[in-house]
């Protein structure tokens, strides 16, 4: 902070209706300027000011960036990655399993918690931030990995066999010979190492949570700020963290969600990130720990967009919307990234719009907080499948998953996420299963049973292809799921961009194409929904549908165009009996529903476009919460450009 | 192998007519699981099974990938390259000149050969695989290189002069000061180092061959699997190996040829790789040690293509067509690469087609094996010119050579390859000489004599430019060959894409262009075939033709379009009196001929297109070997889509 | 030199009118082949031959490339950069602050100077060549930097505050903990380090100049060969050297200017480099130490271009035009780069044209040398702003500056360069200030005063944004200059490519756009020249003009198209009363003027196009110097394609 303006900040926050702030994360070098010398005055100062103003505080443990003196003392604190030893400077450059890092991090956390634990302003703790393994893979990590492997695969013969290490003479015939995985070309071993690296994150967060729980009061929560696969914005499943496993040690899930804005604002990332955050704690509400205010230059919101975004978060089940950051930063790496306030700390259009959000949140919290959602559709994702798929492509796992998610979002079909550890896959009517490249027999058999018992399922290409060790199955493909899908194939190819015979999904010439991948499928019991339009491959099926037991399995054997994928999903949703009133609306008109704390149904209608729109309101009569106006059942509803309405049913 | 199925494999091989398998290559870690502990049971098992089935075996020495324990014991086994020390994992990561590698490799080879040498299934040995120097350039290699230089250039003054080391203060005034070549910017020194690295390969293969010859029986052969410059497929001259020198220690040349397929299948790589393999042992027949069955996803053959490919290999003189690999691999790096069998080991369309190939080979071997070819045209390539040209461009040497090769292939002009070491350049009527950038005076004088004595020659730009040390000649360009070519130039430029004046080759507006390079040529005695169409350079010649002695030299001074190059080559072929009946066919209709063991002429007609074609058969009456049908002289011949006919003349 | 031909060279030089050569630069390994063993015979030989021929010599200290033995003895001579330790081979790979380098360089310089100092052929000395810091940033440099910081910022608390090191826990709480800047993500610290690296260059050149001055005679000069930001040619402000500071130790500025040629020859780089060279010594004439003769293949000059270029240098104030290099080099890295002579040393078209230049120079020197120029327009550049701007973009500083320079060049508006150290900014009528991202308060206040006192100024976006420590200002933007500009903004964005409302600059639809950056400007006292044409941002100003005191400040808040920028500059020039007769000509017709030694006005008219042109000559009657013909006032003047006329006024 270039000059002292705490009082002004607090007063501007109050004016904007801000009732929680998050502090202390990544301030280790301020809090412990020298080895063992602690200074909490900056924390105390803020805690006291916030408390006085009635603003609650989430305190972050400061471990996400290490101080200079620690690296000077123990250079091994910095991770060694496949690119070599890290240099001091960036955040997230440490080896989270290093003993010196752990020793000093623990002391710093305990000192801080000891100091602040009784402060009344604190409502919760955030452990670390956007934690990952950061590619740590030096000797320290390698020796842990060898121990991990030894425990899981006590027999080297068996390990060599399962991982196929004969190939290119990679056999490990003595544990002492185990070479660094950094140079490995064995995708099975690399996938296991990636899994091990994710387990380091789970273990590390559990370790921090345990320390924090020794100090925290029962009413205070522990959270983390998970983030997503980054493609310039929050894009997909996080490859480096097993969110479902890591979230177990938290009281409440927290995420950051960053997304394109202006003409590119769609709400898809808000919905995607929210659905993941809600799902990782079994349907519980979650915190949006960070999202953009002005953000990148190209993300400065148009008038109305900041409000649209904030209420979109709530509609997915968020119980907090917190901006990173309050004011823009004047030095270092991210001066281009703008907060609620610009560098000048003056009220600006973005801040002015935030004030209206604060006011509405304050007024409507009893109606909006703790929204409960009930979805019939689940997307089954898998960190193991992601790693395995990304070893071989085409493209990336998230490039298969996200388009399917987005199409469901565009159709106003609410989804939860499940992963192979989920107990409740069976409660859904329809499961979407993109690119489940690697999976154990047990999961695939479970999915077969799911269909047999009446479930509907949509698989994409490459699903079921390899086992949990990234070993390609020796059975006819797609292996175990071939039974529920009623298909088989033994060859696959990529002939470029080709059509489907006779445009079976009626998408028109421009959209009737597949690309990047095609399996040469023969139906056993399945009905063929589409054949390839190709002189050599025309006899093979591209998309199939099979009745199996009481359920239905649809299999997409190729990279379908968005329009085709949409039609297939539509077919599946109808087949599962889930095509309802909300499906009469399409993006940019988005509807999200849930049950609030009063047990009343709440419907959010969002207009993600620059044009005002009038839609049919299809639910019971209710009250539009922002305006307080009454809404008749089956009436017309006008949505302003980049605007929204929230209707609480009244009956 | 995920489970034991040797008997099934052998039986499926038999069914497909497979009569040779290649084993043991890169299995060092299986054969010697611990230092000095040998286990040959997997080799014995296969040898016995094959022998029982009447399938012959080529055994590879296992040295192409090193075991974990060896690297643990002697880390210096891994090569140090300009990118730093290699890591364990990939194949071909070792320093082939390292004493520890050599010591352990020799022991492993001897142990294996001692064990298998009397087995009756073995017909030959493959030494190592796709051997190169792999960029090895650490201190071990540097000190060998300095010794090599000291022997060749005992005087440092002379070395400094020849290599131009005064430039940028690079003089070496004391052998002890000789810096690592890795950082050198001296293209002469770098070219010499590249040559030295190629000599490491020659020496290494000679060393292995010598060991193997101590054990092998007289009727068994020694081969190697040479590969080509890789551009996603087998593209051009291998920069890292001097094929003609390295092949000297072999009994029979072996190559792998990988090529695009489906709509991109042209046969050009099959022909190119075959011509090189045949030429490297002076016209002897050769083995296709590896080629694709299904291969990359985008290479899965259309129906008929696998047959087309197999017989195309024979038509260039191959005596074996061997697929890499039998079945697809379930783990590690190349699960995407499909063998004859898919991962499911079941008969699939590719395997089914292979069965017909096996059957035909069995039936027709006496007519097809050991085909002898007589070509009148040679392409003169040079490893030295390649390295030198690639230092300065434009583009790469292979990007000059391959288009010329492909045009000759398209015109059905059979070619051999010669290099500067070839004794028999003079026996050809026409020599094509692309980008002979670096060459000793003696070679250029020899080429002048070749023309004087009646030879025809086609040079491209940059030929004759520098001496064998990559030192630009101080004479007027193109130096020595200027005499035979009847031209001179002292300036060259690149004005982008420009035309030739008045479209002299009648290729039409779209094709009448040159690009990337232009020499500002003045004829001395030559006739100008084309001038540049340019306001500043219009007085200079682009392409010339000169009568010199009894012969003709054509010089192409610029980067001509494919259409222009084709016309120039056509001119040269006609001028050399080689334009014959086969030239009435053009790609996709390819004809290849030779003399079989019965002394009869055999003509292969290939249709590299998806449309059936009818052509004029222009040779004597004969028998179509596949069908057994009689063919009249000068009759019509129908070629199915992706199909072929083989006619043995009968008279 | 492949063979001895000094006499021929000298005679060909004489024939071409060459009267100065530059020697010895980067020949350390020839001059001192062994540690302490010196051999000056090659220098003596050339000095004597030149002296005999009446050709003067500039001798370069040989320190720009280090000999092998020095690196062998002291490997630390090679710089360590963020990419790791340098390898031997390239030039400019040393740590210019290394004590061993300095010790040996000093000895070599002193030995050479001691040896040559009395030779009558020498007219001056060039210290080193194209000197930069070459990214040196190893421990040696780091420790110097810490000392430098300690001296400037004795209080770590203050340093942490000014540089914002709290961010991501980067605080330095003890000087011993100061981490290597190589890994730093703190743009303030990185900018300071870049400045420190520039100071190493200044100090190093000063050190060499001081040594040389101990030996040189009063009439001999000291120069350096400065170069420019390289973008395949001399493009912009050199980021690694503070030219104005470094030039202080020289007697005369020297530069190399390399530029596209053939159809891409515009003269802009000749003018840009010349204006910088002239400005760095306060308007003094300068030497073009290197420029291309044939150069890259694509730069071989069309007939007439070499002349056009040579006289263009003179028109900017050059007193020497020297080609790099005399003859083309036969080995090593740059054989593709062609000198006046090709590798064949024969007279070629380029050399033939050079002879006419030499003849004209000889004849006209009294009229052309020491041309004095008086410009009313200055471009204010800043190395500090360059580094800071390049940390954050969009694009690069030079990509903002060069287009503005080029537009002024195209309009025939002569400019000088000034930087923040310049005493004489105030003497100009119009200051162009591109992207002055980082600047101290004092400079911005000075610029406000400049306007108040009657100056005209044109700022681009991002000017005034941060202080001299790359810390964003906490005031409303654009900070201090907001007063003179009469504007304010607190948000900025990038919506892609959008128009300006109602095409205010009348540039037509295709050109009416801005892109990459837009500030959402509100005028306080300014008149809005253009609003954004955008649904959300339409109320904000894009370009403004403000009367402030007696002057005018124009502010461009966005990335304007070339056509718009041109119109704005035209507006500013007119507003400053500088729109004159030369502005009736536009590129490709370029006019440059000055006063020669006779006190007469000289006007150069250049035609940078392939078409002859006739123009109105708007000055007093005079003599065309090349032809000697009389020119009437207000007459017509014909310029050949790629030709020029030089008129000396006579009255």
Automatic annotation (TrEMBL), chains A, B, C:
Keywords of the record: Glycosidase, Hydrolase, Metal-binding, Zinc
One Gene Ontology term of the molecular function aspect: metal ion binding
Region forming the signal peptide: none
Residues covered by the Beta-galactosidase trimerisation domain: 375-578
Positions bound to substrate: 91, 129, 299
GO biological process, one term: carbohydrate metabolic process
Gene3D superfamilies linked to this entry: 3.40.50.880, Glycosidases
Keyword flag Hydrolase: yes
Active site location: 130, 290
Alphabetical list of InterPro entries matching this protein: Beta_galactosidase_Trimer, Class_I_gatase-like, GH, Glyco_hydro_42, Glyco_hydro_42_N
Similarity comment: family membership: Belongs to the glycosyl hydrolase 42 family.
Protein name stated in the entry: Beta-galactosidase
Biological source species: Hufsiella arboris
């Amino acid at each position: 902070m270039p000059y002292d303006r705490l009082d002004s900040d607090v007063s501007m926050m109050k004016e904007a209706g801000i009732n929680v702030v998050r502090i202390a994360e990544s301030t280790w070098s301020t809090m412990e300027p020298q080895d063992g010398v602690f200074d909490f005055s900056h924390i105390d100062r803020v805690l006291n000011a916030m408390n006085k103003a009635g603003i609650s505080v989430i305190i972050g443990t400061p471990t996400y960036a290490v101080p200079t003196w620690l690296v000077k003392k123990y250079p091994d604190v910095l991770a060694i990655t496949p690119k070599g030893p890290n240099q001091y400077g960036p955040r997230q450059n440490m080896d989270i399993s290093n003993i010196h890092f752990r020793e000093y991090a623990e002391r710093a956390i305990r000192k801080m918690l000891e100091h602040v634990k009784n402060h009344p302003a604190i409502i919760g703790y955030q452990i670390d931030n956007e934690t990952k393994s950061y590619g740590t893979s030096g000797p320290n990590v390698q020796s842990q990995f060898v121990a991990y492997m030894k425990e899981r695969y006590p027999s080297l013969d068996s390990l060599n066999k399962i991982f196929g290490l004969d190939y290119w003479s990679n056999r490990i015939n003595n544990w002492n010979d185990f070479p660094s995985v950094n140079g490995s070309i064995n995708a099975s071993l690399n996938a296991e190492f990636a899994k091990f690296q994710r387990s380091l994150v789970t273990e590390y967060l559990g370790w921090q949570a345990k320390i924090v729980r020794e100090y925290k009061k029962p009413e205070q929560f522990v959270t983390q700020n998970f983030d997503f696969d980054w493609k310039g914005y929050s894009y997909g499943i996080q490859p480096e963290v097993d969110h479902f496993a890591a979230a177990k040690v938290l009281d409440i899930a927290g995420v950051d969600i960053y997304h394109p804005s202006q003409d590119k604002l769609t709400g898809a990332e808000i919905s995607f990130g929210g659905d993941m955050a809600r799902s990782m704690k079994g349907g519980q509400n979650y915190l949006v720990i960070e999202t953009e205010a002005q953000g990148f230059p190209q993300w400065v919101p148009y008038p109305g967009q900041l409000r649209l975004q904030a209420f979109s978060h709530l509609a997915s089940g968020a119980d907090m919307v917190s901006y990173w950051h309050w004011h823009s930063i004047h030095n270092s790496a991210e001066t281009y990234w703008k907060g609620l306030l610009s560098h000048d700390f003056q009220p600006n259009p973005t801040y002015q719009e935030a004030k209206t959000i604060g006011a509405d949140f304050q007024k409507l919290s009893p109606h909006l907080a703790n929204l409960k959602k009930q979805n019939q559709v689940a997307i089954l994702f898998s960190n193991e499948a992601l790693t395995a798929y990304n070893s071989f492509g085409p493209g990336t796992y998230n490039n298969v998953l996200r388009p399917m998610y987005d199409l469901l979002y565009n159709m106003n079909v609410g989804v939860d996420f499940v992963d192979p550890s989920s107990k409740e896959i069976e409660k859904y009517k329809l499961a979407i299963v993109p690119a489940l490249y690697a999976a154990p027999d047990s999961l695939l058999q479970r999915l077969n049973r799911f269909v047999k018992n009446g479930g509907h399922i949509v698989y994409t290409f490459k699903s079921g292809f390899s086992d949990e060790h990234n070993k390609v199955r020796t059975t006819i493909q797609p292996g175990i799921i071939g039974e529920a899908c009623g298909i088989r194939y033994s060859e696959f190819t990529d002939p470029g961009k080709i059509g489907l015979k006779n445009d079976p999904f009626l998408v028109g010439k421009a959209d009737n194409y597949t690309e990047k991948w095609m399996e040469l499928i023969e139906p056993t019991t399945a009905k063929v929904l589409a054949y390839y339009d190709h002189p050599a491959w025309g006899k093979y099926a591209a998309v199939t549908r099979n009745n199996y037991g009481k359920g239905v399995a649809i299999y997409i054997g190729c990279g379908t165009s968005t329009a085709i994928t949409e039609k297939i999903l539509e077919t599946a949703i109808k087949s599962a009996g889930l095509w309802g009133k909300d499906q009469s609306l399409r993006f940019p008109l988005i509807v999200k529903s849930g049950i609030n704390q009063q047990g009343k149904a709440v419907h959010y209608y969002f207009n993600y476009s620059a044009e005002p729109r009038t839609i049919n309101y299809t639910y019971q009569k209710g009250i539009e919460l922002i305006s307080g106006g009454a809404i008749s059942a089956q009436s017309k509803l006008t949505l302003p450009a980049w605007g929204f309405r929230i209707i609480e049913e009244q009956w």
